[in-house]
Structure formats: structure tokens, C-alpha cells
């Protein structure tokens, strides 16, 4: 999709709920970010979320169990290292999202803002869900930017998306108590059958809408998969006071084009 003009890329996002931009980050950016991520992963640099904390399918029962210190996410990426802060506020991201929102994009430091990992052992499955399920904002037009720091496929737990799911309306019973899209619900079968898993290379970016249904399988490779993900909202969209979404200030992005 990276051969498309920005307005055409945005049209794809609006239509299918996600768009892949090839080679958006340079090999130098990817190498630098990956080096920091691997070092922080090795040294367990806080803040960290462990697979055992969420206990999704395939995760250890507790931190004390075998594999219990398998990392799921390196949290707080923006404040974790200046390299991550520079990536999260990269002018090209600001320009792209500024065109999409039609106004200044704001980085959420509460939601996503992390390095996602997927380990071959004890890396859990993530069921179909919409990211907006636990977020509280005055509008629901939020977009996440997912950067692959290495190859991503279905075999190593790459993201799958359901095209068009961001624009649909669903009944509450189509989701379970944890707000995962139920795979045992007949009405959901046709949606799930549409799913695609775009193969990514290091430096590729996926912009996806917070209402787009997505999921990830386990990692059947021998290497840990690493990705950086941040979420943005337009400046006119505000986190709801008193909610977790409002617990930390956002960071406005500048568009160098004005």
C-alpha cells in the first residue's frame, strides 16, 4: 500500500479499518528501536506486563509458574527511552494522522504506548476484540500505529484483521464477558471468515481503527516477535474525566507542513 498517495492510503483505512504502509520506518530506525527493546526485555526494565498477569490462553498460571516471567508488553514506551519518544512523535506519523483527522493528532500515553512481544513459549493467544472496549473518550475515532521490528506472519503471531468490522454495529451478546468477539456465536462466523493476516517486514507500519476487530495466534517460530504500538486521537476528542483514559496527559504531534 505504500505506493499509494496519502489520501488513497487514508481511503483504505476508512473503508477496511486498517492500512499497511511498507517500509515506513527506515532500517536504521528499526535497528535502533529493536536494540533498546531487546536490552529492556533481557533486563526486565519496568514497567512490564507479564503473560501471567492476563492469563490469556497459552499463558502461565502465575508469575511463579514455569515461564511465569515471560514478558507480554514493555509498557510506557514514550517515557522508556528517547528513541521511542521520537518514534511516537515522528513528523511523518503526525502528517499522516493530521491528514486523516483533519486536525492535530494527540498521542495517548495511557493506551498501547508499548512494545508488544510474542514469545515462542508461553506467548498467549489474543482473541478477536476491538481496542475501544476499555477506552473512554468523547469520540471513538482513534487510530493506532503498529510498527513491525521484524517479520510478522500468522505463524509467529502476527495480527489478523477483519476488514470493515470497524464500521459495523454489533449486539452485546456477540461479545463475551471480557468483551472478546465470540467465535461460538453464529452471527460472528461470517465476519471471522473474512479475516486477513497481512505479512509484515521490519519497518512496515499498520494504521488501524480502534473499532477494527483483530486477533493474534501464538508464535510457532523460534524467535521472539517485537512490535511497537501507539494510539492517537484528534485534539478535539478528549478522554473522559475520571477514567483511566484521562489518567495521564496526551502529547500533541506537530505537522511540519503546518
UniProtKB/TrEMBL annotation:
Domain of life assignment: Bacteria
Region (Disordered): 238-258
Annotated source species: Achromobacter pulmonis
Name under which the protein is recorded: Phytanoyl-CoA dioxygenase
Name of a matching Pfam family: PhyH
UniProt entry keywords in alphabetical sequence: Dioxygenase, Oxidoreductase
GO molecular function, one term: iron ion binding
Amino acid at each position: 500500500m505504500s505506493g499509494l498517495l496519502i489520501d488513497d492510503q487514508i481511503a483504505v483505512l476508512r473503508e477496511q479499518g486498517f492500512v499497511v504502509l511498507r517500509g515506513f520506518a527506515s532500517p536504521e530506525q528499526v535497528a535502533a528501536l529493536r536494540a533498546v527493546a531487546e536490552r529492556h526485555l533481557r533486563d526486565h526494565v519496568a514497567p512490564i506486563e507479564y503473560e501471567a498477569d492476563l492469563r490469556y490462553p497459552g499463558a502461565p498460571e502465575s508469575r511463579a509458574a514455569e515461564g511465569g516471567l515471560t514478558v507480554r508488553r514493555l509498557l510506557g514506551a514514550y517515557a522508556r527511552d528517547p528513541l521511542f519518544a521520537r518514534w511516537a512523535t515522528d513528523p511523518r506519523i503526525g502528517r499522516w494522522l493530521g491528514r486523516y483527522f483533519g486536525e492535530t493528532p494527540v498521542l495517548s500515553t495511557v493506551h498501547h504506548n508499548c512494545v508488544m512481544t510474542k514469545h515462542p513459549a508461553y506467548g498467549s493467544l489474543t482473541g478477536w476484540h476491538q481496542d475501544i472496549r476499555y477506552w473512554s473518550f468523547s469520540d471513538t475515532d482513534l487510530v493506532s500505529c503498529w510498527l513491525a521490528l521484524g517479520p510478522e506472519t500468522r505463524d509467529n503471531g502476527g495480527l489478523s484483521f477483519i476488514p470493515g468490522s470497524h464500521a459495523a454495529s454489533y449486539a452485546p451478546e456477540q461479545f463475551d464477558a471480557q468483551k472478546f468477539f465470540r467465535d461460538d456465536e453464529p452471527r460472528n462466523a461470517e465476519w471471522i471468515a473474512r479475516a486477513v493476516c497481512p505479512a509484515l517486514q521490519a519497518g512496515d507500519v499498520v494504521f488501524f481503527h480502534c473499532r477494527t476487530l483483530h486477533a493474534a495466534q501464538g508464535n510457532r517460530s523460534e524467535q521472539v516477535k517485537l512490535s511497537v504500538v501507539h494510539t492517537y486521537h484528534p485534539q478535539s476528542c478528549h478522554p473522559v474525566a475520571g477514567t483511566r483514559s484521562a489518567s495521564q496527559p496526551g502529547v500533541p504531534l506537530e505537522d511540519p507542513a503546518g
